[in-house]
User: Which sequence fits this backbone?
């Protein structure tokens, strides 16, 4: 066992050596003089770096707050614009719709009862005039039917033709002669249509109702041409039983369907 004097001198020598090393390496003195102490200090050295970064962030944040104007609310207003567009003011949307309704309700009610302005349609006016004139001047046995843009003159077949025939009878010629002056005054196209009932016909001359209706329409057109009407204003069409005006289930209905129709079209109507 060493003597106390020796131990004291050794310790003094070792302390002097450690002081000399601390003077040359200050970090060793800070972290610890002994290797075990320095290892423990190295494990917590990251805390210093973390504190430095945190301090830097705080400084930057303080600088940003310094340059901001607390009275400037424009960023807040800009941020609120999308919300305002997504949820607009309902009253602002309703005002343009409600505003035209404001006013004197009595005036509005009076306007509702005002008559609608008359439409100036030359086709309708011309058709009404032609139909009115035809009703006044057409001979007995002619039915005047008014349609948009045209006037129809219906003549039952028994006045013009014998049953199953297409040759005009004397009564039919007389009736057409009375109609000729009225037709001559008309400036538009005149279409003569032949119509039959749905009872089939099968003769050598007329194999079907198509031939019969076409022959009757052509016979009327030939007679009107002989009376002096222009050919370019006339045309003949056979309709057979395709356009009935009454039911073919009764004798009276079939009689109404057997007819010749003279269609007086408006002069302003377009034709193909």
Assistant:
């Amino acid at each position: 066992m060493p003597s106390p004097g020796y131990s004291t001198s050794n310790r003094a020598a070792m302390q002097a050596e450690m002081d000399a090393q601390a003077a040359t390496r200050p970090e060793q003195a800070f972290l610890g003089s002994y290797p075990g102490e320095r290892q423990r200090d190295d494990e917590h050295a990251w805390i210093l770096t973390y504190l430095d970064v945190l301090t830097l962030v705080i400084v930057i944040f303080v600088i940003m707050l310094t340059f901001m104007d607390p009275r400037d609310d424009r960023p807040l207003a800009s941020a609120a614009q999308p919300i305002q567009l997504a949820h607009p003011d309902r009253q602002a949307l309703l005002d343009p719709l409600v505003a035209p309704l404001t006013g004197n309700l009595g005036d509005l009610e009076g306007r509702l009862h005002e008559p609608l302005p008359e439409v100036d349609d030359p086709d309708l006016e011309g058709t009404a005039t032609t139909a009115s004139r035809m009703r006044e001047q057409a001979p007995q046995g002619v039915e005047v039917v008014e349609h948009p843009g045209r006037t129809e003159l219906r003549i039952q077949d028994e006045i013009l033709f014998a049953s199953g025939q297409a040759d005009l009878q004397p009564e039919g010629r007389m009736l057409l002669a009375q109609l000729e002056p009225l037709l001559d005054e008309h400036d538009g196209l005149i279409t003569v249509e032949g119509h039959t009932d749905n009872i089939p016909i099968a003769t050598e001359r007329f194999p079907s109702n198509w031939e019969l209706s076409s022959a009757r329409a052509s016979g009327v057109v030939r007679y009107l041409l002989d009376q002096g009407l222009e050919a370019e204003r006339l045309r003949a069409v056979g309709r057979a039983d395709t356009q009935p005006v009454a039911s073919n289930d009764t004798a009276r209905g079939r009689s109404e369907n057997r007819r010749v129709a003279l269609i007086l079209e408006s002069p302003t109507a377009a034709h193909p």
Remarks:
- The first strand starts at residue 142 and ends at 147.
- Residues 1-6, 29-33, 76-80 have pLDDT under 50 and may be disordered.
